[in-house]
Amino acid sequence: MTSSPDTQPLPVQRITGKARLAGVLGWPVGHSRSPLLHNYWLRRYGVDGAYVPLPARPEAFEVAVRGLQAAGFRGANVTVPHKEAAFRLADVLDESARATGSVNTLIFQDDGMIRGLSTDGDGFVASLRAAGVDLPAVSHASTGRRVLLLGAGGAARSVAVSLAAAGMEVCITNRTRARADELAASLPGLSVCPWEEWEDRLGDYALLVNTTSLGMEGGPEPGFCPALERASAGLVVADIVYVPRVTPLMAEAQRRGLRTVGGLGMLLHQARLGFHAWFGVEPQVDAQTEAYVLASFSS
Ligand SMILES: NC(=O)c1ccc[n+]([C@@H]2O[C@H](COP(=O)([O-])OP(=O)(O)OC[C@H]3O[C@@H](n4cnc5c(N)ncnc54)[C@H](OP(=O)(O)O)[C@@H]3O)[C@@H](O)[C@H]2O)c1
Question: Which reaction is catalysed here (predicted)?
Fold first, then answer.
């Protein structure tokens, strides 16, 4: 059994003159859980380093990045509204950044180049695997490898790219059809299902993923609870919304005996690559990490 943060006190954070530095660029950035998570890992692994919030207005984004690089930072996470600007600014892009046209992790290399990664989608797939949902093995005879993705925003794009790379056949459905068509046209192998019909077609899919903000506390429709009676017997229901931890969609799926995976794991797993690149340690996403971050939701 993993110890809770209460039973295993964290060491005091060590920040010397040689500390490694990183942070999160956003506007606004006050809602971000990244400083909490990265500083938790820094303390847990005894790393001499710090991770700070970096509020940067859109017009100041590039100046802020160049300034951080000049001041010796190792890199930064990038959140709304800077992900596309970070994509344009990076000198070297990994495959997921190229496929999504956005960057959420910047790494300042020793040769002066800026490397850009998009880790959301791979973080999502890693969270599924950590929850015991193996891809593409989740498929069964009646559904094949088909996944239904609700949403066509930034998160949907990253998740679609990584699910396709993991061998799944991705179908997009979105309230605004044109956005779904645009997303499907920009990536190979994607199909589109009309928003009004997806509940009736659920029997065709092995995995349902909500990437919209429906069901999110404070979002457009916090009570979002679609009909799941047509679900295939082995359907896995994943929701990338992580506040609340169990969304109404997940609660309904659980009531029907379906397996569910929440969004917190994605949030934690997407952070691992950056932490490793900046601070030189491969961090664990475990019950202790989850409990620490979850505690911040109630405070
Ligand atoms: N777990 C994680 O680590 C993680 C990471 C990233 C994002 N997220 C969460 O994922 C959600 C989406 O983020 P995003 O960056 O992709 O946002 P986004 O680009 O703004 O996309 C929002 C999506 O939600 C849909 N939507 C919004 N209101 C709706 C409504 N009333 N009815 C039907 N559809 C509606 C939009 O449909 P239209 O195109 O029709 O407007 C669009 O597909 C947010 O809740 C965010 O917190 C979680």
Answer: shikimate + NADP(+) = 3-dehydroshikimate + NADPH + H(+)
Active site residues: 83
Q: Which atom of ligand 1 is nearest to the CA of 120?
A: 5
Q: Which two tokens stand for residue 37?
A: 């998570």
3-class secondary-structure state, position 160: helix
Q: Decide: 128 and 115 in contact? Cβ < 8 Å.
A: no
Q: Is 99 in the pocket of ligand 1 (CB under 6 A)?
A: no
Distances (CA, A) of 263 to 49, 63, 126, 226: 27, 33, 11, 18
> What are 142-187's pLDDT values in tens digits?
888 999 999 999 899 999 999 999 999 999 999 999 999 999 999 9
Place of tokens 């303390």: 43
Question: What is the number of other CB atoms lying within 10 angstroms of the CB of residue 30?
Answer: 7
- Residue 285 makes CB contacts below 8 A (sequence gap 6+) with 126, 130, 265, 268, 269, 272
Which residue segments constitute the domains of the chain, with CATH numbers given? 20-117+265-296 (3.40.50.10860), 122-261 (3.40.50.720)
The verdict on whether residue 254 carries a ligand-binding annotation is no
Name the stretches of the chain with pLDDT < 70.
Answer: 1-8, 299
Q: CA–CA separation, 237 vs 185, rounded Å?
A: 25
